[in-house]
Specification:
The protein has twelve helices and eight strands. By secondary structure, it is of the alpha+beta class. It has three domains: 3-54; 83-177 and 246-390, MetI-like fold (Orthogonal Bundle); 181-232. The strands form three sheets. A four-stranded antiparallel beta sheet has the order 1-2-3-8. The protein has a two-stranded antiparallel ribbon with strand order 4-5. It has a two-stranded antiparallel sheet with strand order 6-7.
Length: 396
């Protein structure tokens, strides 16, 4: 018998038994883990049902159709509307805080993180003071301080501050210009999405052309020009579907524009200031993680300090920063539940009010957890997409 014929028989004889095979043990371990998780969930579920029935408490989610009996401030919500509508308003309020807060905190944190590495002693120390001060103070303390010691201490509405006829600032909140739909808003929204996609495509085309020819790309300027021109053309071509109004102070009332209540402003600024201090450290650490030779090479080809940061350091540091940034975005979204302490009607506040009005607490908390889980998974999805997009080719 040849060696080639004997090899398969040898492999069959030396293959370990199933209880020693690593692949079999790995699959069996995962299956056992899933069975234990399923058993634990079933045990908790049946225990909950048993206790609810023993206390003669409802076990269904019919409470979502019951009247809310809660007046939600700064909205047109009617207390006679069902609880599910109130939760939808609370979800929208939570998304408003999280979305705006993520954008502002990212910009502010990036600027402060770069300032932490500045060669200017004053700038570097000021950025370090900001980080060390706000990062070590509980975010709830920051939110309550901004609400009670800042927002509620602003001038009353009769003495409101007016800035350039565009902003009205008082202890009732901040009023800024806004647009109201007066025409075909749906078509205008679609046009904006198309123009944005076209602007991104033009910017990427300029970048590829620069890589191929060596000429300056100016991708951002080209993309911005296409975006502005497209928005203007779509706005007038569709008959000006959005009417922009500025806030006007009329005695003790403000008409026009959009108002941001003191609760929303305190919550937003508190979350932004706190989260930006953590993002600044992430940005600083990511920049320092870029090999020093990259900076030296950029300097050798004559790039300025801004060009080195813009074209060499930040693109590479972003690849490192995305996973921890995603964690901060998740923390900001979940920390928005602290709005209950200042009376802002987010998901948690409305759930709390629903429970106080006699609705079943277990079901209400389950719905609340499901909403936050959906928000967190959405943020994680986009973060993972960005992480894959920035990953080096061939790496996992």
């Amino acid at each position: 018998m040849s060696a080639e014929q004997a090899a398969p028989s040898y492999r069959r004889q030396t293959r370990p038994p199933p209880w020693r095979d690593v692949r079999v043990l790995r699959v069996a371990g995962q299956a056992l883990f899933l069975v234990l998780i399923a058993w634990a969930l079933w045990f908790l579920f049946t225990t909950l049902l048993t206790n609810l029935r023993a206390l003669s408490l409802p076990t269904s989610f019919d409470y979502l159709e019951q009247p809310t009996r809660v007046d939600i401030r700064d909205t047109d919500f009617n207390p006679s509307q069902p609880v599910k509508d109130a939760l939808a308003v609370g979800l929208l309020n939570t998304v408003r805080v999280a979305a705006v807060g993520i954008v502002i905190a990212t910009v502010l944190g990036t600027v402060i993180g770069i300032a932490r590495l500045s060669r200017n002693w004053l700038v570097r120390r000021a950025a370090a003071l900001y980080v060390e001060l706000l990062r070590n103070v509980p975010v709830l303390v920051i939110i309550i301080f901004l609400y009670t010691a800042v927002m509620l201490r602003l001038p009353p509405i009769s003495e409101a501050l007016e800035i350039a006829g565009l902003v009205v600032f008082s202890n009732r909140g901040l009023n800024v210009p806004w647009g109201d739909g007066v025409g075909n808003v749906g078509a205008f929204t679609v046009a904006l999405l198309v123009v944005a996609a076209l602007a991104i495509a033009v910017a990427r085309w300029r970048t590829r052309r620069s890589d191929a020819t060596g000429e300056p790309s100016h991708g951002f300027l080209y993309g911005l020009g296409v975006l502005v021109a497209g928005v203007v053309v779509a706005y007038f071509a569709l008959g000006q579907p959005v009417a922009f109004t500025a806030p006007v102070l009329d005695n003790r009332r403000v008409t026009g524009g959009i108002g941001l209540g003191p609760e929303y402003a305190a919550l937003l600024f508190g979350l932004v200031l706190y989260t930006a201090s953590h993002i600044a450290e992430i940005v600083r650490g990511s920049i320092l993680a870029v090999p020093k030779g990259q900076t030296e090479a950029a300097s050798a080809v004559g790039l300025t300090s801004w060009q080195r940061m813009r074209y060499v350091i930040l693109p590479q540091s972003l690849r490192i920063a995305v996973p921890p940034l995603a964690n901060q975005y998740l923390n900001l979204t979940k920390n928005s539940s602290l709005a209950v302490f200042i009376g802002y009607f987010d998901l948690t506040r409305i759930t709390q009010q629903a429970i106080a009005n006699g609705n079943p607490a277990p079901q209400a908390i389950l719905v609340l957890m499901g909403c936050y889980l959906a928000l967190s998974l959405t943020i994680a999805l986009f973060s993972n997409m960005a992480n894959r997009r920035l990953a080096l080719k061939g790496s996992r």
